[in-house]
Design goal:
Largest sheet: 6 strands, mixed
Order of helices and strands: HEHHEEHEHHEHEHEHEHEHEHEHH
Number of domains: 2
Low-confidence stretches: 1-25
CATH topology of the largest domain: Rossmann fold
Distance between the termini: 26 Å
Strand order of the largest sheet: 7-6-8-9-10-11
Number of helices: 14
Structural class: alpha/beta
Mean pLDDT: 85
CATH superfamily of the largest domain: Response regulator
Radius of gyration: 21 Å
Shape: globular
Number of strands: 11
Helix content: 40-55%
């Protein structure tokens, strides 16, 4: 979808949402959604949210949905205070945090590490004093789901390598504990800057049978993704990716959640909050709905018999207790 169509599509959604907000009674549950009108993923999530409101007459008549651009957030004063703010993406979450309004915030399509950084910078003191609430549906998948994917596709592999940066080193103990629960041995490399990435990666790959990607802005980004993939090719080490795009680039497999799937989970969360106004927002959580994809060509070159994606999702759901 080109940029013009994305912008036009979101403009239609915004106009519909604003119409809904104006037509509702003053006692409706007022939700402000902050999004980037130039982002296709944001548009997809908003479409899902809007469609769920339309399909459920009860909530279409009780939820007032107002969608604003992240660039226009400062134009809304105290007299237009919502009951809930939904911030789509890291920039929107940061903008909402800087506004310091009293409405609770639910952040979506945000990496766990980015969410933690914003909470630390803007909310830690207020939260400890019972102030403004913030929560999230992370963009990342739970470690258990991803380690289960390793076991399903590579049952003979026991040694898993991972590179952690300054933002993700905090997950080291959780990763080690979860890997052990899945009978996997985790080999961890740590980097503080990009100059350390290649030597650290080479060291980890020599001890590993599979590389485990993680959402870290230093370790896995657009600038060095090709470097990481080429290194795994040289060592004939498959990589478990973090998105569908990684599969297209050459990763063996990935488990991920689409914007539509996160939009579905967000809608259900919104409905629960709207049904009992005044209740606290739920704690941060991982995606409930997810997809799984396997690079069948790469799997064949490694002698791996790929599992059909629907069956793979079913198995992962059984192991982790989540529903596809």
């Amino acid at each position: 979808m080109n940029r013009i169509l994305v912008t036009a599509g979101l403009a239609v959604i915004m106009s519909l949402a604003l119409f809904t907000a104006d037509s509702h009674a003053d006692n409706s549950f007022k939700v402000r959604v902050i999004a980037d009108e130039k982002n296709e993923g944001h548009e997809q999530l908003l479409s899902t949210l809007r469609n769920r409101l339309i399909s459920d007459n009860q909530f279409e008549n009780t939820v007032s949905l107002e969608i604003v651009s992240v660039n226009d957030l400062g134009k809304y004063g105290e007299d237009n205070k919502p009951d809930l703010v939904i911030a789509v993406g890291t920039l929107a979450t940061l903008a909402a945090a800087r506004e310091k309004k009293d409405a609770p915030i639910i952040s979506v399509l945000i990496p766990h590490v980015s969410y933690n950084s914003i909470v630390k910078d803007y909310f830690s003191a207020k939260e400890s004093q019972g102030g403004q609430e913030i929560s999230a549906i992370y963009l990342d998948q739970p470690f258990s789901r991803r380690f289960a994917l390793v076991n399903e596709l590579l049952p003979q592999a026991r040694a898993v390598g991972i590179i952690l940066g300054p933002g993700t080193i905090q997950y080291r103990q959780e990763l080690l504990k979860t890997a052990k629960a899945y009978n996997l041995e985790l080999h961890v490399g740590e980097v503080q800057d990009e100059s350390q990435l290649v030597p650290t990666l080479e060291s980890v790959l020599k001890r590993s049978q599979v590389l485990f990607a993680i959402l870290d802005p230093l370790v896995f980004n657009r600038a060095n993704a090709q470097t990481v993939l080429l290194a795994t090719y040289r060592h004939r080490i498959p990589i478990i990716g973090i998105s569908s795009a990684y599969i297209d680039a050459g990763a063996l497999a990935a488990v991920y959640s689409t914007p539509e799937q996160i939009g579905q989970q967000l809608a259900e969360m919104l409905f629960r909050l709207a049904s009992k106004p005044g209740q606290k927002i739920p704690p941060p959580q991982y995606p409930e709905y997810f997809s799984a994809k396997v690079n069948k060509h790469f799997a064949r070159t490694l002698g791996i018999k790929p599992i059909e994606e629907r069956e793979l999702i079913r198995r992962l759901s059984e192991q982790t207790g989540s529903e596809p």
